[in-house]
Amino acid sequence: MPTILGQNQYGKAENRVVKITRDGDTHHIKDLNVSVALSGDMSDVHLTGSNANCLPTDTTKNTVYAFAKEYGIESAEQFGIHLARHFVTSQEPIHRARIRIEEYAWERIETSEANSKFIGADEVKHSFIRKGQETRLTEITYDGENWQVISGLKDLVVMNSTNSEFWGYIKDKYTTLQEAYDRILATQVSGRWRFNWTDDEQRMPNWEKSYEQTKRHMLEAFAETYSLSLQQTLYQMGSRIINSRSEIDEVRFSLPNKHHFLVDLEPFGLKNDNEVYFAADRPYGLIEATILRDGVEPKIPVDMTNL
Known about the structure:
The structure is a single chain. By secondary structure, this protein is of the alpha+beta class. It is built from seven helices and twelve strands. Strands 1-2-3-6-7-8-9-12 form an eight-stranded antiparallel β-sheet. A two-stranded antiparallel sheet has the order 4-5. β1 and β2 form a beta hairpin. The chain is globular, with a radius of gyration of 24 Å. The chain starts with 14 loop residues before the first strand and ends in a 15-residue tail after the last strand.
């Protein structure tokens, strides 16, 4: 039976690069996990084994490290743009580059004034602890004419200990869930947002500021929404971002409901007044949705695990 070659790409995945910027005695860290995928005129390498149009994946790895030195890492987005532009414009067979980046944040270790007298102020300026709140993400795609930048985060765990209800839902003979009028609402946020930036250098967003402000609006919406469902909270989070950040046209969230169930303490003669909960890790409700600027078509994939 005849076969044809379908969509394909290749590259070097998970290139871990740590860039230290030394500002005198004060150091700054950028810690990235960079994956490169290239596509274009690559049929022969599959069909005949000819490598004439194949840039070695080892070369893509080396480029990541060389660019960290040559251009520095101002932001994950800017670094990915440099890489994508390079691969597409420097190699004729390569028509499209996709750069996916995870960024791991670090913060300085704070020491007491008493301890700093012993270790010296310079020690504090280059001592760090890995932040565990979330992993920052970005994906840059470039085909020689069009850019698409999708950024986001994963593993951001948040909780409201009150101001959340869930009641009035459909009930059938299999329904055992009790209505809740004061419950814990917790989730582990995976979110992506798509920028409307194309290629105008003058209109390029401040990527670092945009990420911090987008995360702030997301968290403020989570905290300030009196929630009747996780769906309602998700929509408020996405709407706050769209309405507050003009550079973003689309937001997609995947929010698992990290269930907390009241423990029955009556067998022990104790009253549980919304104080003691069992934190269940599975199974869990999974709430997913896309929030768009009016008039904009969705482009973020529904399955965000592939970003």
